[in-house]
Amino acid sequence: MDRPDSSNTPGTNDPWTNDPVVKKHAKQPDWEKKLIADIATSAIKEQRRARRWGIFFKLLFFAYITFIGVVIWQGQATDMVTSSKQHTALINIEGAITNGTDGTNANMIIESLQTAYKSKGTVGIIINVNSPGGSPVQSGLVYDEIKRQKALYPDIPVYAVIGEVCASGCYYIIAASDRIYADKASLVGSIGVRMDGFGFVDAMKLLGVERRLLTAGENKAFLDPFSPLREDEKAHAESLLKSIHQQFIDVVKEGRGDKIAHSQNDLFSGLIWTGEQGMEKGLIDDLGSVRYVAREIIKEKHIIDFTQQDDLLQKLTQRISTEIPKIFKSLLSEQQSINLQ
Which of 117, 196, 193, 121 is nearest to 158 (CA)? Predict the structure, then answer.
């Protein structure tokens, strides 16, 4: 239906002007402009109302997900500890061993061990490793915890199974296990310590850069990459590495005992070997997988994974703490007045 000419006052017989909303504005100056403003305002109010309901349901959804997540998390934690059905406990160590949250850290592994040992149905533990190593401190903490738990639960054997690789700090950890298994193509060893760095002295000279370094303490700039390497600093760094290396060697000898070939000078040289070669050197005991060890060695093929993951509740909390401000920001923006001129 065509709209009447805006220059004329609408007539009483015109269907357009019979509409109640039109009648309301028809006697006012510039009635068409005001009518359009009212219609637009009504649409905006309706849109705001719909968005508020949307925000409400988002908040309700997040609360529901949080509740379900907490219930599941608590239920899984309780089931693992109280389960009386016999099982093989599995703990996975995957990736670099660090003290951060991106890799495998000592706290997570230790919590996994403690939960596995406390579980009433645990008849044996498998530590399934696939790691290039990492922090000697984190590795040492886990090694000590395995030894402690073995003393507390002498009837529960703990075995290590190597996947693709178990090098350096990873082997430091599993040296505490009763027996070590691997695939014939697994890589194992790298019993050594390293310190990485770079020197930019010559590059700075080429670029004409002058190094300005002020310190309080003659060795405060120890191994500064922009200063020439001093022989006394190098000697001190090598002494540190040698000390940590000896700690590593002592742990392996303690854990492996007479199984390792002490006469082989390259065992602690930092070299790495295949599973077959590692068995010849005494680094591993036999070839086998996780399922093989559970079925044939522990004699319990029912496996429960006790690997601690990032706290589910913490993940949900972080997600909510990120989303809630966005929702409230949207809600506040909706409260801003929109004036149509």
Answer: 117
Query: For helices 231-256 and 136-152, what crossing angle results, to 10°?
Result: 20
Q: What is the mean pLDDT of each run of 10 residues along the chain (341 residues)?
A: 49 56 59 68 73 68 62 51 80 91 81 94 96 94 96 96 96 96 96 87 86 87 86 92 94 90 79 94 95 96 88 55 60 49 39
39: its two tokens: 């219609």
In the 8-state DSSP scheme, what is residue 258? G
Question: What's the gap between Cα 331 and its chain centre?
Answer: 33
Q: Beta strand pairing status for 122-131 and 87-94?
A: parallel
Q: How high is the pLDDT of residue 316? A: 56
- Quote the CA–CA distance of 301 and 307 in Å, as a whole number: 17
Structure tokens at 56: 């409400």
Which has the closest alpha carbon to 162: 175, 152, 150?
A: 175
CATH number of 86-189+229-301: 3.90.226.10
Burial of 306 (0-12, 13-18, 19+ CB in 10 A): buried
pLDDT at 159: 98
Give the pLDDT score at 154. Answer: 95
- Cβ proximity of 307 and 114 under 8 Å: no
**Cβ proximity of 167 and 132 under 8 Å:** yes
Q: What is the 3-state secondary structure (H, E, C) of 5-22?
A: CCCCCCCCCCHHHHCHHH
Alpha-carbon dihedral sign for residues 297, 302, 303, 306: negative
Burial bucket for residue 131 (CB in 10 Å: 0-12, 13-18, 19+): buried
CB-count exposure of residue 338 (10 Å: 0-12, 13-18, 19+): exposed
Closest CA to 48 of 254, 338, 320: 338
Give the contacts of 124 (CB within 8 A, at least 6 positions apart). 88, 89, 156, 157, 158, 159, 294, 297, 298, 300
* pTM (global) more than 0.90: no
